Amino acid sequence: MADFDGARLFVYARSLGTVLRIDGEIDAVNATSVAQAIRRFALLKTPLILDLSQLFLSVDGFRALLVLNHEHQQARVHCSVVAGAALHPLLGIVGDHGLPVVGSVAEALQLIEDIVGSRRRFLAGMVRDRHARHEASPRRRDPVLMR
């Protein structure tokens, strides 16, 4: 647990990603330091789940969240946001926020599991297709062996 002038960050490592639960309040005083802490976890390049269900978020905090979301997209780091009662009004005001909002940590973990499963099936299909094309192609004789 880390304390950032009214916001508390709790970290839970899961097999599918990292859950960062933030309680308290993110405002002009601590938005930058909380965002920096989240950035350090994004460097791991594993999926993140930001559990903000117990958080009050000021406009400064919401702005920091939008910047983080853009950075995660650019870095190709999957990040889900569990929104709470304080975040929902801001989401309603800013219509095209682009935040990947989910209803719970369990839903976010299921989403990551589904993404990983889809990727595995896609890659397995590519390997099968390549193997099938290789087996179906006519074998070329090595000119050196034909002598």
Automatic annotation (TrEMBL):
Matches recorded under Pfam families: STAS (PF01740)
Coiled-coil region: none
InterPro entries, A to Z: STAS_dom, STAS_dom_sf
Domain STAS per the UniProt entry, residue ranges: 19-55
Taxonomy, superkingdom: Bacteria
Listed Gene3D superfamilies: STAS domain
Protein name according to UniProt: Sulfate transporter
